[in-house]
Structure formats: C-alpha cells, structure tokens
Amino acid sequence: MEKLTRRGDIGKFIEALMAPPVDAGTNTAFNAEMRKGRMEVWMRVWCKREFYRALFGALLYTSRSHANRVEVTFALPPLDQVERLYKEAFAEQLLTPAPSKDALAWKLRYMKTTGWGLRITREEAKAAIAADEEFLAAHPVRRRKATGGKGRV
Q: What are the sequence ranges of the domains in the chain?
C-alpha cells in the first residue's frame, strides 16, 4: 500500500484498507474462511446422503427373507423411491464444492466406481473435481511446524 500522508487522501486510504488481499494464497485467515463456507454446505449435503443411505440399508434389511425376525411397526417408503433419493443425494454430493483434500479424495474414489446410474454425467463430476482442485490450490491449508515430540500434548 502506498504511503498516504495528506488529509485529502483519506478516501484513497479507506479504499486501500477495504480492498481484498492481493495475494490470497498467503492470507491464512482468508483461506480458512473460504474453506469454512464450503465445509458447511458439504456437511449439510453429506448428512442428507448418509440419511438416505441408512434408510436404504434399513429397507433392504427389512425386505429380505430374514426380515420376519424384525417387526416394523411404522410405515416405510417404497425401496425404489428411497434408492432414487439416495442416488440424487449422491449426485448432489459429487457436485457440491469440496472443502478439503479429504472430500476431494472421496469424490475421486467414487469416480472410479463401475456402476454409475446417477442423474449427472461423469463429465459434470470431472468438471466439479477440477474446480475443487483449483480452489484448494488457491486456498491452501496452513501447515503446522513439526515439534519433534517436544511440543504440548
């Protein structure tokens, strides 16, 4: 930021102060805030996907031959409807921006599955993954210094 000393330059000073960081790659707090915003969305979609996965598993269990051992006292939705909802949530998870390298690894792992059957194409998922890789490269995680076992426990 250039030196602003005259009283008439207060407008320029405030503009310079309010401007976004020039190099976001070195601004740790900014990067953390950007990833945090993505994490909230990612977790909301993850919870939805896991709910449908658990419900689908419960329906599979109760619909099998050993289901006569389980007494279901409430109405459950049809298996095909829950399967459709699970696949939609799965596709939504693949398109949701990844907040971390772990989330990106999850996406990459499921891109290799043989049975696709989702409402999105592999090209759409690959485009989302490429955008995630670009974002994570632009907003790196701060690495902690190794203490060599001498740090706090």
A: 37-138
